[in-house]
Design brief:
This protein is an alpha+beta fold and 150 residues long. It contains 3 helices and 7 strands, in the order E-H-E-E-E-H-E-H-E-E.
């Protein structure tokens, strides 16, 4: 199981930043064939959750998400860039990753509505955490998405 740590943008080491950007590109740009601007201006104001395995000298990033405080992107708090590395999928880490993100939000932004833009195929996954779809399916960077609230 991964070792979990939360960091603000200034707290990220250069290696951690490189690894999270590389994983985001591997999954969202290469695997999903979505051409988009990953460096979207929200990382600096976000909280970053990194799930790593291996030694502390050479950790391997296996899971990642970022939490965006209210007012950064939406009036509500949000989270996104939810990733499990391809080689460790289907081991339950996705659920643990989202649960840790929701726990962080509840601790730091209690009773604040949460808004996410979820890939449509993950709708049921997020519904299992209490999210509900609001609006129609829309295209974001060539991938069907839905807005969801909790």
């Amino acid at each position: 199981m991964p070792h979990w740590k939360w960091k603000t943008f200034p707290e990220l080491t250069l290696d951690e930043l490189y690894n999270l950007l590389a994983l985001r590109q591997e999954v969202f740009v290469v695997e999903q064939r979505s051409l988009y601007q990953d460096a979207d201006g929200y990382d600096r104001g976000s909280h970053h959750l990194l799930g790593t395995t291996g030694s502390s000298e050479a950790p391997t990033l296996e899971a990642y998400l970022r939490v965006l405080p209210p007012g950064l992107k939406y009036p509500e708090v949000s989270f996104g860039r939810v990733i499990i590395a391809p080689n460790v999928r289907r081991l339950g880490q996705g659920r643990e990753l989202v649960r840790k993100g929701l726990d962080f939000i509840e601790e730091h932004y209690p009773r604040t509505p949460i808004r996410i833009g979820a890939q449509h195929y993950l709708q049921r996954f997020y519904e299992s955490f209490g999210f509900r779809v609001v609006g129609d399916v829309y295209d974001e960077d060539g991938i069907p998405h839905v807005d969801m609230f909790r």
